[in-house]
Amino acid sequence: MKRIYDAGFFKEFCETAANMYRLGWDERNGGNLSLLLDENMDDYFSYVIRTIPISFDASELAGKCFMVTGTGRYFKNVQEHPEENVGIFRIGKDGKTAELLWGYSDGGRFTSELPAHLMSHIARLKVDPLNRVVMHSHPTSTIAMTYVHELDTNKFTHTLWQMSTECIVVFPDGVEVLPWMLCGTNEIGRATAEKMQSARVVIWSMHGIYGAGRTLDETFGLIETVEKAAQIYLLTSRLPRVNTITDGELKQLADYFKVTPKAGILNP
Fold first, then answer.
1. Which pLDDT value is given to residue 268?
2. Please, where are the H alpha helices in 32-185?
3. 113 annotated active-site
4. Could you tell me the pTM of the whole model?
5. I want to staple 88 with a disulfide (CB 3.0 to 4.6 A). Which of 26, 48, 102, 111 is the partner?
6. Domain range 1-112, its CATH number among 3.40.50.2300, 3.40.225.10, 3.40.50.10070, 3.30.479.20
7. Which of 99, 113, 176, 224 is an active site residue?
8. Minimal CA–CA distance to 118: which of 187, 167, 190, 175?
9. Run of H or E residues at 227
10. 3-state DSSP assignment of residue 104
11. Residue 184 scores a pLDDT above 90
12. Per-residue pLDDT tens over the stretch 14-44
């Protein structure tokens, strides 16, 4: 048997959680992180510790294994005490149970927002079969921006693109914006998954961000870029706008870096 603590994905997951806390994205038990695992977990674990019910039918992911932060757990503790704060489980054949293979050692369970994560994984895998990560966090500037900016997806995206040259290159698919909704419910999970069909970033107004990507690094960098753009917006929004990145210049960037901006945002 291989030792799970030596696995590269395990170390990176714990380091990512620590960095999310360090940047102030995941205060207290705020936020959650899930990683679809490619490695064969039979090389690490030989039996199921216990089964945990899932509150929706995840049959489309049956047999797949995930590493997921626990409910009520503090990100600041993940790196030092992963076995208590993180779990690795397999989606059961019925799609309604998680077969715990490792972790949640003190009797805990996965994040209450697991349905939203799994729904988003299902949606993103249909768009990109290589998608592996769903990351939910509470970046300060992005949340603050939802209080003062119109919650229109295209307008929100356009503003973010104009805040930094790299934005349209990093997220040419833009961002999707949801109004405030009750968290931890299947309703917000379904709404997020629907938005994930067209973008890798979904902003929960007055709450945080859901980001998706192929790797932990890519997804972290995606959210990091959105958060930096939101911070620049807040720093400049009450000042006279002397200069800006024009739509023509945004098109130049897209052409040069060979990305396709989301339609309907830039002026013809």
1. 78
2. 82-85, 114-127, 140-148, 153-163, 167-170
3. yes
4. 0.94
5. 102
6. 3.40.225.10
7. 113
8. 190
9. helix 216-236
10. coil
11. no
12. 999 999 999 999 999 899 999 999 988 989 9
